[in-house]
Specification:
Length: 304
């Protein structure tokens, strides 16, 4: 049986962009604007305060790992009251040196190794929306090791660097997300997979997206009544079952159109449509443009 979480990460196609050491000393605070790209960090030593928009502020300690799948606005600071310095990461060039906040002299009160990455998938926003706003893992020794590997590789020019970075980021994401795969997670894929009955239905959809699934058939795989399954799935995942299935089919179709030289009727069949014309209509309604045009634009925009 396919693993839905691994499939989502694979479809995102994450690529590391930047990884730097960030430190702070004395009275300091920085307020970052909404960035939109996924970011992560591990605390190497010390502690600080993190306040993410829409989330209760938390204390970060040595060994902690944080992942922000969409990186909304957030404040990173010492524990004393301070007016943070505003930073718009979209308006500044990527720093080439390690970043220091507060007093420039002396030992820092906190050191973090952080970075951000982009996703090649044209459906990244949809897929990332299935993940929680903030992933915070305490005592994340395995994740800390992975982040250090990412940081070391990101600053090197060794052969195979790009491929190794992409694989390291994928492993890091899976390790981080599966630790938060609980029924207390916010609505999304992780919460759905934490429910054993819903997870069975989600795995069936991912294993065979071309099948003409009905809510009744999916409910049967989950050993629930149709109404109970619909309500439970919608509450846990944040999408109705057929909405989730459509979104997944279109994500798979987009990936094939972008990377595979397949005839339209083959793509249509693989995602559950009886003909190319039926698929084209559904795709245009969902995406806003015909699949042929989408494929051309994606391939033209792809790096050579």
């Amino acid at each position: 049986m396919l693993d839905p979480l691994s499939e989502v990460i694979a479809l995102l196609r994450p690529r590391t962009v930047l990884s730097k050491v960030i430190s702070g000393a004395g009275r300091w605070g920085v307020r970052y604007a909404d960035f939109g790209q996924p970011s992560f960090c591990t605390v190497l030593e010390g502690s600080c305060r993190l306040a993410v928009e829409g989330v209760t502020p938390i204390t970060l300690e040595a060994g902690d790992f944080v992942l922000l799948p969409t990186t909304p606005g957030f404040t990173l600071s010492c524990f004393e009251p301070v007016t943070p310095t505003f930073i718009d990461p979209n308006a500044l060039p990527s720093p080439t040196e390690d970043i220091r906040h507060g007093s420039p002299d002396g030992d820092p009160d906190v050191r973090l190794l952080g970075g951000y990455f982009n996703c090649e998938s044209p459906d990244a926003k949809l897929l990332v929306s299935l993940l929680p706003t903030l992933v915070h893992v305490r005592g994340a020794e395995r994740l800390g090791t992975l982040v250090r590997f990412v940081g070391d590789e990101a600053t090197s020019q060794r052969a195979g660097r790009d491929l190794l970075l992409s694989r390291l980021v994928e492993v890091m994401l899976i390790e981080a997300l599966r630790t938060t795969q609980t029924q207390d997670a916010p609505p999304g894929l992780l919460r759905g997979l934490a429910d054993a009955r819903l997870a069975t239905a989600i795995r069936e959809m991912h294993a065979d997206p071309a099948r003409s699934w009905t809510v009744g058939e999916l409910a049967k795989t989950a050993a629930l009544s149709r109404s109970a399954f619909f309500e439970r799935f919608s509450r846990a995942v944040g999408l109705a079952p057929m909405e989730y299935l459509l979104a997944w089919r279109m994500a798979v179709a987009k990936d094939m159109l972008r990377h595979d030289d397949l005839a339209l009727d083959v793509v249509a069949e693989r995602v559950g449509y009886s003909s190319a014309s039926t698929f084209s209509t559904a795709f245009a309604r969902h995406v806003g443009q015909a699949p042929g045009r989408f494929a051309r634009e994606m391939r033209q925009a792809a790096p050579v």
